[in-house]
């Protein structure tokens, strides 16, 4: 077996099914644009997708497209086109890659699924729970296509979620209904919303169980696997297909656990990853950790699609709670306590913080958290400087060296 093969991730067989699901998701969107129905709503990845499904929209997620631009390494090429029309290289590189690709008339969806262009929005719906960039991102397309832009403004940087946060957000969601009715041509039906919230709840429970498999020793999946297999939780949440898929994946992972099948052969160290993935370098990083017999078994990022609060009995309030309880919405004290819990449950030996240049919202290393957590938990910590999409902000050589030194530190700690 060649060296390259030895460092490849072990195939998860459910991936074949996931690829089919993603293909049919995009084909359905393309068909809808051809036929003019159903209408297409663009939604932020942790936005109120349930409401849009319940109103009869097909839902498209530009962040998924941003990640695809990153993973296919097209992003760095297109970002300058967005910079040229005034979007700073310092803002979200999902935004700049996506807008740049649009301006160039290119999308990775063509090669992957045969779409000529991204499915144009009939309406754009954002939630600022993650950042303000999404509002500005969607505003670009609202101007471009002259379609409605609506959204909700979530309280951010909060420690405890209060009833007034929830009441406010639930009202904001309800206030969107008249515009959604007008664009979709459908009347709002609370029972449909309850059904969709119930489907999202089921999906999120299964996704949590998938991620919790990482607590097994050896772990049956890696962070790099999870960044791929989270796709249905992001783009098919609220639909039955996502539930069927996670049942299939979970079965496979449980079989791996029962048979002690390690995702990383000879697993020696177990790490926690905080921050965005570096989409264009997933493969290289995965291979390096595989070689070092180190598995990143848990992450704040993949946990972002666990929404424990969904409750069909209280659809608006529970959506408001689910989308406010998120890690990214919370203050540092909450984030540290949250991470600590996962770190203990997953028997973590060290923490990696990714400081993504263009995403301060999902970079938690800028206000002393790595130092505080390292000291409190007695764990080695590494901060990687990079970016989710803009590879000009990432030094492969430097990162490789830093990771090697970090693993040596873990080795030394173990031998003490
Ligand atoms: S959270 Fe970060 S990566 Fe996501 S849209 Fe906002 S700025 Fe971009």
Would you give an account of this structure?
With 416 residues, the chain is α/β, with parallel strands linked by helices. It folds into two domains: 175 residues, Rossmann fold; 223 residues, Rossmann fold. It is built from 19 helices and eight strands. The strands form two sheets. It has a four-stranded parallel β-sheet with strand order 2-1-3-4, with helices on both faces. The chain has a four-stranded parallel β-sheet with strand order 6-5-7-8, with helices on both faces. Strand 7, helix 18 and strand 8 form a beta-alpha-beta unit. The radius of gyration is 21 Å and the shape is globular. The mean pLDDT is 97. The site of iron/sulfur cluster has 12 residues, from helix 8. Iron/sulfur cluster binds next to helix 8. This is 2-hydroxyacyl-CoA dehydratase.
Which terms summarize this structure?
binds iron/sulfur cluster; alpha/beta; Rossmann fold; 53% helix; single chain; globular; 4-stranded parallel β-sheet; 416 residues; 8 strands
Quick recap:
The protein contains 19 helices and eight strands. It has helices at 3-6, 15-35, 49-54, 62-71, 75-84, 93-104, 108-113, 133-145, 163-175, 177-184, 190-212, 223-229, 231-235, 240-258, 282-291, 315-324, 332-345, 369-377, 396-415; strands at residues 40-43, 58-60, 123-127, 149-152, 269-274, 294-299, 350-356, 381-386. One of its GO terms (molecular function) is metal ion binding.
Bound molecules: iron/sulfur cluster
Number of strands: 8
Low-confidence stretches: none
Please indicate the count of domains: 2
Strand order of the largest sheet: 2-1-3-4
CATH first level of the largest domain: Alpha Beta
Radius of gyration: 21 Å
How confident is the prediction overall: mean pLDDT? Answer: 97
Helix/strand/pairing class, anyone? Answer: alpha/beta
Termini separation: 35 Å
Shape: globular
| CATH-scheme architecture of the largest domain | 3-Layer(aba) Sandwich
> What fold name goes in the CATH topology slot of the largest domain?
Rossmann fold
The total of helices stands at: 19
GO molecular function, one term: iron-sulfur cluster binding
Protein name: 2-hydroxyacyl-CoA dehydratase
Family: Belongs to the FldB/FldC dehydratase alpha/beta subunit family.
Keywords: Iron, Iron-sulfur, Metal-binding
